[in-house]
Structures are given as C-alpha cells and as structure tokens.
Amino acid sequence: MNNKKRIRFEIPAAALLIATALASLAAAQQFITKAPTAADWAAMAKLPDFNGVWERGGGGGGAAPRGNAVAPGAAPQRGGGQGRAAAQGRGGGGGRGGPSFTPKYEAMRAAAASAPQPEDNSTANCLPPGMPGIMGQPYPMEFLLTPGKMTIVIEAYTEVRHIYTDGRPLPEDPDEKFFGTSIGHWEGDTLVAETVGFSDHVQHARGVPHSDKMKIVERFRLTDPDTMTIETTISDPVVLTAPYTTSSTLKRHRNWTIAEYICEENNRNYVDQAGKAGINLSIPGGDSPKK
Predict the structure, then answer these.
(1) pLDDT (tens digit, 9 = 90+) per residue, 144-167?
(2) pLDDT tens across 97-152, in order?
(3) How far apart are alpha carbons 261 and 154 in whole angstroms?
(4) What whole-number distance in Å separates Cα of residue 194 and Cα of residue 184?
(5) Cα angle: 129, vertex 132, 137; to 5 degrees
(6) CB–CB of 82/63 below 8 Å?
(7) Contacts of 240 (CB under 8 A, 6+ apart)
(8) How many helices and strands (H and E) does the chain possess?
(9) Selection from 283, 277, 252 nearest residue 51 by Cα
(10) Closest C-alpha to 189, from 142, 145, 223, 147
(11) Rg (CA), the chain
(12) Which of 3, 120, 148, 227 meets the CB 3.0–4.6 Å disulfide criterion with 277?
C-alpha cells in the first residue's frame, strides 16, 4: 500500500478513535438514577433523621465564608439566627479560622482591600452567593433525605442543592455552577459531601478568584435530635497555602415551612460602572413619581 492509500485509510481510523473516546467521556459524565426499591426505602430508617427545616444559630465555631462579598444591609432573620458572614480574606494561617493565600493571591486580596469598595454587590441584584456562602445565609433550609440523594431547599434566593449518594463518582470535567456538583457518602452517622466545579462568580474573598482545583468537603452530623453541625473544609492548592476549616450549628424547627423568596420581583437596586449603588424609583410601565 502506498503512502497516499495509507493516509486515506488511517485518517478515518483516527477519527473513529476520537469519536469513541468522546462518547466514552460523555457516558462517564452521565449517571442513570435507578428507581428506589423497597429495600432502599427500608435502609433510610437506619440513617440519621436530617429531614425538616433548619436555621443557622445556637453556637458553633463561626460561619462558613460566603461565595462572594457580603451584601449590604441587615438581612431579615427568623428566630434569632446568625447574620451573614463575609469571607475571611486575610493572609492568616490555614487550618481553622480563615484562608491563607499564596503570594500572588495575597497581593490580589490586598489590592482589592485597598481599592475603593463598591456600595453594592451582585447578591443585592439577585445573583446567589454560590458555595459555600449560600449555606451561611440567615434564612431557613429544608433538608429532604431520600434514597440516593439529599436535597437542600434554601429559602434565600429559592435555591436548591442536591448531594448525590447513589454511588456516582465526582465528575472529572464538571460543569461550572454557583453550587458546583456535590457527591456524598456515609461515614457512620456522618454524611460527607465533596463539591467541585464552581462558576467564576464564586470567590475566596473580595478580589480573590478560585482555581479549577478548588474543592469543598462538608461533614453533616447530628449532635442531638434537633441540632446539626456542618464542618466545612475548603482546599485550593493553587490559591491557598493550606486547606482551612470552619464549622456551623443548625437548629431544627419542626413547625416551620420554607417561605417564598422571589429576589427579582420588584427589585429596583442597581450598581453603576463606578460601583455606586442606586435605586430605580420609576413606576414600572408608567412615569416617574412626582417629587
């Protein structure tokens, strides 16, 4: 066979190999959820009872840092829960308490801290905080434990998280999301959730982005029938000098239900290019009100 014929036959073969590899990758990224069996439902009775509406507060070692900077103004709270917590964007030690940045990202943090601060931010304009900030909101969260999945309905921004416990692996090439992709497993009475794949909106601190190596590990555990602790460890070997861990405590309110939260409805806040906040006082569909 001459070279021309060899090339003619080898190119389709290479294309076939590429197509096969892409198909295998796509299949690996998908996971078919099977219908739960009676045995699956029976196994639920042996797991800790996380179901119900929970509120942050009642102690703990501090709030998990927000996915971005804290929104201005006090947020309404129910039952005395903890308020919002900003990211601890300082160059302190790792471990527990706050992040320690590598020199490049510490310089970015310092530059952002010394620059004029905007009067408003994206959360006031209806973008959710992302992970782990959404778990630190002073709004209730409803936990729903079903076979193969824990669903967390967060009143703030009407957001929903899924922690999959059906045996699927962490995605190798995850879609970038505000909350990432969370895969969980049980270690005794503790649900351990690993989360990867975050959107650019999520930051370690103001002006400090994350890398594609960022991972969040949460450990959910009941300390008594109506008290839950969440230990959150954040690692990012590109941005952080070491992983760091925070913890929070939630209290269950069995007589509560999640309220409707529609951020965009009647939202009139805006921020101009200079970072100055403003309010649109015009009447939708009509003229501006008289002064």
Answers:
(1) 999 999 999 999 888 999 999 999
(2) 688 999 999 999 999 888 887 666 677 678 888 899 899 888 999 999 999 999 99
(3) 10
(4) 6
(5) 60
(6) yes
(7) 94, 99, 100, 101, 102, 105, 204, 234
(8) 3, 14
(9) 252
(10) 223
(11) 23
(12) 120
Q: What is the pLDDT of residues 11-58, one digit of tens each?
A: 455 555 555 544 444 444 577 878 888 998 998 899 999 999 999 874
Residue type at 79 in one-letter notation? G
Q: Take residue 198 and report the two structure tokens written for it.
A: 């975050």
**Residue entry with tokens 């900030």:** 133
Alpha helices by DSSP H, the chain: 3-29, 38-44, 103-114
Among residues 100, 77, 73, which one has the least CA distance to residue 87?
A: 100
pTM above 0.85, yes or no: no
Both tokens of residue 284?
């939708």
271, two tokens? 């921020």
165, 185 contact by CB (below 8 A): yes
